[in-house]
């Protein structure tokens, strides 16, 4: 069982797509193990995007990610990291297949709806970053036992 970190970015909040995106995560049978709305400060953005801090588009990302609060979700399930990356597809919505989150809902790379951890190792780091000290819920669902 894996847990991965998902961020619903400001364009998702502004466009009223929170339910749409969360529905897709739930419909895939992943378990929502934690969820919170958070206004990102510069420190957490600098840490989260340290690997692209030297890119020309970095200042635009900082501004975009602070436009509204974001929603951080810990999603749990078998192969959750890969499964969520498949659900959201390519970073650039132009390369994202239809029936995926970015393929259906995003038009530009600067506003691509969602972030999800790209490896199990990064998921662990990112979950600690966003849910620090808060502990992710452990609960069982009847459906997991009967199917
Ligand atoms: P994300 O998965 O959150 O990780 C890095 C983010 O940088 C990416 O999604 C995009 O939102 C953002 N970004 C903006 N412009 C670019 C670009 N030209 N190339 C790659 N990423 C970009």
List keywords for this structure.
single chain; 4-stranded antiparallel beta sheet; 41% helix; 18% strand; globular
Provide structural commentary.
It is a single chain. The protein is of the alpha+beta class. The protein has 8 helices and 4 strands; from the N terminus they run βααβααβααβαα. Strands 2-3-1-4 form a 4-stranded antiparallel β-sheet. The protein is globular and about 50 Å long. The two termini are 16 Å apart. It binds adenosine-3',5'-cyclic-monophosphate (CMP). The site of adenosine-3',5'-cyclic-monophosphate has 8 residues, from loops.
Give a topology summary.
Blueprint: E1 2-8, H1 10-14, H2 18-27, E2 31-38, H3 42-48, H4 58-65, E3 70-77, H5 80-88, H6 101-105, E4 114-116, H7 120-130, H8 142-146
Bound molecules: adenosine-3',5'-cyclic-monophosphate.
Brief digest:
With 147 residues, the protein is of the alpha+beta class.
Structural Rg? 15 Å
Largest sheet strand order: 2-3-1-4
Major β-sheet annotation: 4 strands, antiparallel
Number of strands: 4
Helix fraction bin: 40-55%
Proportion of strand residues: 15-25%
Judged by helices, strands and strand pairing, the structural class is alpha+beta
Mean pLDDT score: 96
Distance between the termini: 16 Å
